[in-house]
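Exam revision sheet. Question 4 asks you to relate a sequence to its structure. Input first:
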Amino acid sequence: MQQKDKQIRHIRNERLETVKPNYRGNKTVDGRFANGDELYNPALSKVLRWQLSKNPQREEKKHDNFTPPVHPGNAFIHSNDDMVVWLGHASFFIRLNGVTFLTDPVLYDLPMVKRRVGLPCLPEELRDIDFLLLSHGHRDHLDSKSIQTVFSSNPQVKALVPLRAGDLLRGINPQLPYQEAGWFQKYDLLPDGVEVYFMPASHWHRRGVLDMNKVLWGSFVIKTPTLTLYFAGDTAIAPHFEEIEELFGPMDVCIMPIGAYKPAFLMQKSHMNPHEAIKAYNLLRGGMFIPMHYGTFDLSDEPASEPVRLLEQVAATGVLQGLRIPAIGEPVLLHDMAQV
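Answer key, structure tokens:
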């Protein structure tokens, strides 16, 4: 029997500016997004292999009770300073040039996965949020309850999301305004003085049984006249870091994922280990390195403290001079951060 020809399309938001010359848009194959040019469907056999195999660090992990420290309080919400505040996992409160962002808010337990560490304040206290930045649709990054809470407390908020994520948001709250973008596209909802671009990531999508790679994934660049910030989302090490640096130059602040990398046979095509995150940061010619995606949820085989311990070992050699490891709720002020 002759195999049906696959339908290949390149799509983007035609209303938005595409900043990479001659980029046709994100490739889809039979309606599913590719990771660049190649389809990536995580193999069920690898998931089963993981579940059925023994973690060689099981005992070490069992006795590793590390959790990130928490600075309680909500004073950062009322400050006018440019800052980055980690809220756990990939959730950040970011204020730049008077505009406030919340990235991938996951403020509660996940289905079957409890938070290992709390928030600095009640979720309802996160106010004056202008934009949600949602990097992709996995439930540890796009959480329905958290988005409902943020929108309830911030009726003015708008969501900046990947292509085809709008259907997910309509299912959460049909009143939440949003704008979709493909890779290398610039959102046009921002006020003067702040620009936000949706950039590539090497990852995948799935929330249900039949929606594999039906929604795009990616990263964000936030740019002001004096500072450029990169939020990596979830990603493996891949050529897009060099492409982003070529378009924007050095990143003043890099928010990089460092956890959920073991076992490598399952994780290496969608997450980075700390050494890979440092390599990506160097490709971006980064200034400040702020780690994320560790310590908040138990999602993989490495012991809880290992990602930070490896970062600190590299930093002790002098190779990673821009490392900042804030507590949850601790403001990282960004005064005079611009590279010259």
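Marking note for examiners. The two ends are 62 Å apart (CA to CA).
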